[in-house]
User: What shape does this take?
Amino acid sequence: MQATTMQQVKVRNGKIQIKAFHRSSFVLQLILGFLAVFTLVAPFFLTYTVIDIQTAIFYTLDNLKMMFLQPALHQVTVGAALYQIVITLALAFLATLIGAVISFFLAILSAKNLMPSLLSNVIITFNSFIRAVPTVLWVLIFAIVAGLGSVAAILGMTLHTIAYLTKAYSESFEEIDDGMIEALRATGAKWWHIIVHVVLPQTSSYMVSWTFLRFETNYGVAIAMGAAAAAGGIGFELFMASGFYYDLHEVGMITYFALAIALILEFFSIQIKNRLMGSK
Amino acid sequence: MNGSLDVIKKKKIQMTLVLLILLLCTMGTSMLTDFSFADGFASVPGTIVWMTTNLIPGAEAFENLSKILSKLWETIVLSIISTTTAGVIALFFALLGSKTTKVNQPFALLARLVASVFRNIPAVAWALVLVISFGHNVVTGYFALFFTTFGFLVRAFIETIDEASVESVEALNATGATYFQMVFRGVIPESLPQMVSWLFFMIDTNIRNATLVGLLTGTGIGYLFDMYYKRLDYGTVGLITICIIAIVIAIEFISNKVRRLIL
Assistant: This one.
């Protein structure tokens, strides 16, 4: 007994090594080392257009001061800004709702305890393809056929919502107790009985929480789409204020409006998560 | 018996009400945004047909390949270095903001507030402001990505520290370890794998965000996409899209591998 424990003690340079070799921590160190070296070296391989860093930083600080410390509205009124925020929220709502309905069915088809795994693999591959294309590219691709505007924006945002929610829903479906499904199957319940009476009641709180989280994300995406793909809403006003009028005071005010709504949404999302998931 | 029937009835009424409200919201929002479901569904098959016929890159598209690859490289570098640098600073804020490692309550609240503000100011706003002073430059894209990444990572890191390290912190405190021993011997080693996993998640997200930021600020792959899109050179647009898909899937693959190795 004594001998075997002694053999495991490794001595190097007269000191007993107290750390054992772990593959995972070795890989971790390797990755961290790589990231550190990459961060230090890679910037030298980029091409920069000539900028005077000092004046650029000075101007940026000045711009940020104008933006955050002296916000004011000039082109848009407060009422119009609020109306545009409602439009952005509406875009996010529609994309989330359509996405959630489609995701629900896709999630049933891709949950491994409800459906054969071949189908689920097809859906997972399809979703990772959707996710690999940035939202703005989807919106612009849809815009060629549907025209720039809310239809293209909502379709593009819906696709990413589907990819995200299908994964979230199907994971919560897979956590359902198999015994309950079996019990219903044994009574001769039809497939949709199982969905309505076991799957839905068991997972509805998770689904609501995930859906609201996605709504919060979609609000941010909708702002971006307004600016980058002319989908309307507060993002478009933001783009106009900075790109057309160079009015940083207005950019600041619009940012504050957008920020306030985002913080409210985040607050609700945390409340919903705590209330629905905490009780379980 | 009667009571249980009432419960079922009440639930049914509740469900109907929720559905009714959702329906009204849907109608209201589609009126507000000029969205028609008919147009939406009608343009899906059209888009699929268009994608399969137009997005296939021809021989002329491949002439632009070297330009695309150099911009793609720029985008990858930007997403990685903005994530790593934001990660380092986020670590400090997360240590201040976490329940287990906070120095005092005001600092903890401040750290959380700063992170929340940075997280919720849209990347678009940063991009649009920075482009005015930095111009169409890589630095613009870097800072726009940096700010949002920082905000997100602080939140993720705080949750990681809170979840991972309660027991080891208690154990170390019981031995009379100092604050710095507790942080560097207990908290960081314990939560590092999860944090690296978040870094990879963020690199993945940032490549997609970099496309958006690039489109707005005229840098990276987003700018190139926008240029060929406006020139109606859809073959090249298709090639760019394929390149982005390849990179995102490759990074997702690597980060899944890494996650399996370290967690």
